[in-house]
Design a protein that fits this description.
With 225 residues, this protein is of the alpha+beta class. It folds into 2 domains: 175 residues, q2cbj1_9rhob like domain (Jelly Rolls, Sandwich); 41 residues. It is built from 5 helices and 17 strands. The structure holds nickel (II) ion.
Length: 225
């Protein structure tokens, strides 16, 4: 399931993140790319300078993502990886690639089910830099307002178009879901959305109870703990 989620960051949070990133040190993004993605990855990423700023920004973004109710029911997160902060200046891009299926190591080894991009720069301040996701229906192109994020299956081929002017800042991360299968996740999301709509319209009716039961038992069946 591919979904855009608005207002992940408050205006104050966004202003604070941008101010910190404006004075931060970015390094070549190839350092964190797989061997084939490295061939097409031309961007920069925030470096840990030992000041604690990277960890503090990562916590802020992770909290903001996790507190969003739509993220919770659409993704069913088990592990949310620490976000990377990427910066594309004029002429930078990230060519077509698929994200690594396994990330981290040891106790932090995870499977990437869902990729996430949180747009940080106002889209009016840069040209190009669209996130393009390939699907069986063709290519889908995204350039979201600052503070909004897109979640999409990590199994897709995708790219970031060349930035032709300005600077594109974004936070990116990956999620391992409690529900491994994309179709199962979508089914649970639809049931959850429908039962909430029924509750709001009619209250706790027998129909609400039955859909809640199906939803709970499917989640129990599919949850991968
Ligand atoms: Ni990617």
């Amino acid at each position: 399931m591919l979904m855009c989620i608005a207002d992940v960051l408050s205006n104050d949070e966004l202003t604070s993140v941008i101010a910190q990133l404006d004075n931060a040190n970015f390094v070549d993004g190839k350092l964190t790319a797989g061997w084939h993605a490295r061939l097409v990855k031309h961007n920069t990423q925030l470096q840990d300078d030992g000041s604690g700023m990277l960890a503090q920004l990562q916590n802020l973004i992770q909290n903001a993502i996790n507190r969003h109710p739509l993220f919770q029911i659409a993704v069913r997160p088990k592990v949310v990886r620490s976000p990377l902060f990427s910066r594309y200046e004029q002429g930078m891009s990230y060519g077509t690639h698929v994200d690594n299926s396994l990330m981290g190591s040891g106790d932090h080894l995870m499977r990437s089910d869902i990729s996430l991009t949180l747009f940080l720069s106002d889209p009016d301040t840069y040209s190009g830099g669209e996130l393009v996701i390939e699907s069986t229906q063709g290519e889908q192109v995204f350039k979201l307002p600052a503070g909004c994020m897109i979640i999409y299956p990590s199994s897709t081929l995708h790219r970031v178009e060349t930035v032709t002017s300005g600077v594109r800042l974004a936070a990116v991360t990956w999620v391992q879901s409690l529900v491994r299968d994309l179709g199962d996740r979508e089914l649970l999301f639809d049931l959850d959305t429908a039962r909430q709509a029924i509750f709001e319209k009619y209250g706790k009716t027998p129909e609400f109870d039955l859909i809640s039961k199906s939803h709970a038992n499917l989640l129990r069946k599919w949850a991968d703990l």
